[in-house]
Amino acid sequence: MTERLDANAAGIARAADLLRAGGLVAFGTETVYGLGADATDDAAVARIFAAKERPRFNPLISHFPDADAAFREGVPTDLARRLAERFWPGPLTLVLPRRPDGTISDLAAAGLPSVALRVPHGAVTTELLRAVGRPVAAPSANLSGRVSPSDAYHVLRGLQGRIDAVLDSGPCPVGVESTVLDLTGTSPVLLRPGGVTVEALEEVCGPISHPDDYAHTLPTSPGQLASHYAPGLPVRLDAQDVAPDEALLAFGPEIPGAGLVWNLSPEERLDEAAARLFAGLRFLDSEGARRGLSRIAAMPIPRVGLGLAIRDRLRRAASPRPI
Ligand code: TXA
Ligand code: MG
């Protein structure tokens, strides 16, 4: 059985107890729901991989209530400190050299000499992480390769019965995962575009190297696999029109066709589009399948700001998948 916990003092305390005892608890963050486990406990972390059916070579992000706690696990550079100052708490994950005296399990780090550290924004999340008092490993709370969950209902749809509890703090305001920035080399490398925009990062870092088309680059981050965030129906990108057998993921005021539509943002706001992305994919997928449609056509999203993260998720959703 999976318990649904309210995001009040009792619910947070129960969630923390379950995590400290080695259990699996999904919890809301500002980006998406995470599937949490005690990051210092190999057995607990192993349960995450099993529940998600996630390949074990893909390392997990560890979550902390503040930067001091995070930097006890990874060695911060000057730049890391400046980024933390500016963007934490918030949707930025920093990859740093792992401390030899750190407590994160080898399994959570997938045996790498680096660790991915994140201080999420949000009172409930911070309170939970404080109450646990240890790093909490948390990938998105969905089956591996499927659409990420932006509310507690999405979590239960995929993981009901496989996890101990979900702490329901309502829908996630940002809606796409954190930006992952690797600071282990001589210059910062963007491993995943996300909730903190490249433009904002560059105000602190200077120019950041990032390929334009993520789906066609080799995976430098083990999580950069093709076919991710995939709904059941295939996805067609940069659609200017829509066929009779297609559902439409729209963006902007002018929409081709008049069939099944989810408009990410009629006013072309990228923050709204990001927040509505995963719910829209889920809706078009289930409703489209029910109506016998055969594909989701996704309208073009601008290559700026949060548009980079949205495009990245759509590209992965459209990638060829294993049968
Ligand atoms: O917004 C988020 O980041 C959400 C919420 C729950 O916090 N979490 C999340 O976790 O998206 P996950 O496991 O789905 O994505 C982790 C990403 C993967 O691309 C993984 O490969 C990368 O971070 N990563 C983790 N540790 C790494 C490391 N040491 N070096 C390079 N990449 C790493
Ligand atoms: Mg994920």
From TrEMBL:
SUPFAM superfamilies: YrdC/RibB
Protein known as: Threonylcarbamoyl-AMP synthase
This enzyme's EC code(s): 2.7.7.87
Organism expressing this protein natively: Gluconacetobacter tumulisoli
Pfam families according to UniProt: Sua5_C, Sua5_yciO_yrdC
Primary location group: cytoplasm
Ranges of residues in domain YrdC-like: 9-196
InterPro entries linked: DHBP_synth_RibB-like_a/b_dom (IPR017945), Sua5-like_dom (IPR006070), Sua5/YwlC_C (IPR038385), Sua5_C (IPR005145), T(6)A37_SUA5 (IPR010923), TC-AMP_synthase_SUA5 (IPR050156)
Molecular functions per Gene Ontology: ATP binding; double-stranded RNA binding; L-threonylcarbamoyladenylate synthase; tRNA binding
Catalyzed reaction equations: L-threonine + hydrogencarbonate + ATP = L-threonylcarbamoyladenylate + diphosphate + H2O
One cellular-component annotation, GO: cytoplasm
Gene Ontology terms describing biological process: regulation of translational fidelity; tRNA processing
Family per similarity comment: Belongs to the SUA5 family.
Residues binding ATP, per UniProt: 54, 58, 63, 118, 140, 148, 192, 229
Keywords in alphabetical order: ATP-binding, Cytoplasm, Nucleotide-binding, Nucleotidyltransferase, Transferase, tRNA processing
